[in-house]
Amino acid sequence: MKLAELQTRQAGLPLRPDQLLGPKELPEQKRSGRVQNGQANFNDILNQKVAEQSKLKFSAHAVKRMDQRDMHPSQIELERLNHGFEMARAKGAQSSLILVDEMAYVVSVKNETVITALDRDAAQGNVFSNIDSVAIV
Q: Please, what is the angle between helix 60-68 and helix 42-53, to 10°?
């Protein structure tokens, strides 16, 4: 699916992973950050979708973790993440854990960046340190 098609997609419908990514990438294509047919990679699309809603961006580490854990948030989930970010910022938070359904995001509010992302399995049994707030949205 082309980026222009994603931009015109009706809000609120979840995007499937096959709609975000083009054909399977070869290892040398992953290093370049682009798929062969010129479509944007997952990181580019994710950052663009978030940028449409807020200033919040995803670190390379967060994108890597989301890809490894097969986390593909829908447009509504991204909007909820942004809402949690805005709530944390309004309270003066510096670093926040934002919980959206089965996903957890550690966000640097100060830098407007998602630092890492975890699904329910990865978050189980972990201790989150160096955060000053939690937003459940």
A: 110
pTM over 0.70: no
Residue 96's closest CA among 105, 118, 73?
105
Secondary structure (DSSP) of 5-74? HHHHSPTTPPPPHHHHS-SPPPHHHHHHTB-TTS-B-HHHHHHHHHHHH-S-EE-HHHHHHHHHTT----
pLDDT tens profile 68-106? 999 999 989 999 999 999 999 999 999 999 999 999 999
Six-digit token pair at 1? 């699916």
pLDDT in tens, 34-60: 454 566 777 777 767 666 656 789 999
Q: Which domain holds residue 35?
A: 3-136
What is the tally of structural domains in the chain?
1
How many C-beta atoms surround the C-beta of residue 136 within 10 A? 12
